[in-house]
């Protein structure tokens, strides 16, 4: 079984969206469809989108949810601690930056995520890890040795904690107690910036 991973840099804050496709069945999932998702949507022709998975519900990670959900008829998965963020532009932060010229809201998620949940999608499994700190409902998705971590851990950096619901101590606990228990070779696909590995960040990240 061949799962391909494509990344797309979307919107004004350069958010990484990921399209994971089972090349045998042409079933796919999307992780964090951000704002201005046209380049991502062009790649969806001929694919059955089984789900949209959200690492968290800040505006820059959910800007494409409504358009893609309506286009492909796929459900959305989000942690319950941010259940009302999809519907509330104030809570998802899109009202904080009026220069973006858009407020983002959509219908609620169809499914709630929780720590240690296993999702069976596109012929493989995803382990859900609740990794709060950047936001209360931040989660990371582990597929084999691929970790989609949202805005928790970046290459030689970490997610900001100065937004509502952020907490630096909780973020560092998530990184040390959950992410850094993974093997060195696990590839980290972050919400912004280049990919990295758990081993590299354990040895080189100045913040942790």
From TrEMBL:
UniProt xrefs under CDD domains: metallo-hydrolase-like_MBL-fold
Keywords (A to Z) from UniProt: Hydrolase, Metal-binding, Zinc
All residue ranges annotated as the Metallo-beta-lactamase domain in the record: 14-192
Cofactor(s) needed by this chain: Zn(2+)
Tagged with keyword Metal-binding: yes
Tree of life domain: Bacteria
SUPFAM superfamilies: Metallo-hydrolase/oxidoreductase
Catalysed reactions listed for this entry: 3',5'-cyclic UMP + H2O = UMP + H(+); 3',5'-cyclic CMP + H2O = CMP + H(+)
Pfam family, any one: Lactamase_B
GO molecular function, one term: hydrolase activity
Residues that span the membrane, as ranges: none
Family annotation (PANTHER family): HYDROXYACYLGLUTATHIONE HYDROLASE GLOC
Protein's job: Counteracts the endogenous Pycsar antiviral defense system. Phosphodiesterase that enables metal-dependent hydrolysis of host cyclic nucleotide Pycsar defense signals such as cCMP and cUMP.
Name of the protein in its database record: MBL fold metallo-hydrolase
Species annotation: Paenibacillus contaminans
């Amino acid at each position: 079984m061949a799962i391909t991973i494509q990344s797309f840099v979307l919107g004004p804050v350069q958010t990484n969206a990921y399209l994971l496709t089972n090349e045998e069945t042409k079933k796919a999932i999307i992780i964090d469809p951000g704002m201005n998702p046209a380049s991502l949507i062009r790649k969806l022709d001929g694919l059955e989108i089984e789900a949209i998975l959200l690492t968290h519900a800040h505006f820059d990670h959910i800007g494409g949810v409504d358009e893609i959900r309506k286009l492909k008829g796929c459900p959305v998965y989000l942690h319950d601690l941010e259940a009302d963020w999809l519907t509330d532009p104030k809570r998802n932060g899109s009202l904080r930056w009026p220069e973006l010229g858009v407020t983002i809201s959509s219908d609620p998620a169809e499914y709630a995520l929780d720590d240690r949940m296993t999702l069976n999608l596109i012929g493989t499994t995803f382990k859900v890890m609740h990794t709060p700190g950047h936001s209360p409902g931040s989660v990371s998705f582990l597929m084999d040795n691929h970790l989609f971590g949202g805005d928790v851990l970046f290459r030689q950096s970490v997610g900001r904690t100065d937004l509502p619901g952020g907490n630096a101590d909780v973020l560092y606990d998530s990184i040390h107690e959950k992410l850094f228990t993974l093997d060195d070779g696990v590839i980290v696909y972050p919400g912004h910036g280049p990919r990295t590995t758990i081993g590299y960040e354990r040895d080189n990240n100045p913040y942790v």
